[in-house]
Amino acid sequence: MVGTIAAVLMFISLPMMLIAGILGVFFTKTYDGPKTGR
Predict the structure, then answer these.
(1) Tens digit of pLDDT per residue, the chain (38 long)?
(2) Is the N or C terminus of the chain more exposed, i.e. has fewer CB atoms within 10 Å?
(3) The whole model's pTM is what?
(4) How far apart are CA 21 and CA 7, in angstroms?
């Protein structure tokens, strides 16, 4: 039971981390772009 919950949590957290990373890069480019010049 615990192993199943852990596997499901890892299965959910991997794409969530990927989406969070893409959103983080997108928002940093959008908001910090004019300030830092990147």
Answers:
(1) 889 999 999 999 999 999 999 988 888 877 665 665 55
(2) N
(3) 0.48
(4) 21
Compute the distance between CA of residue 29 and CA of residue 19 in angstroms, rounded to an integer. Answer: 15
| Joined tokens for residue 23 | 């959103």
Residues 6 or more apart whose CB falls under 8 angstroms from that of 29 comprise 38
Where would I find the beta strands (DSSP E) of 1-38? Answer: none
Q: What letter does residue 29 receive in the DSSP assignment?
A: H
Helices then strands, counting H and E runs in the chain, come out as 1, 0
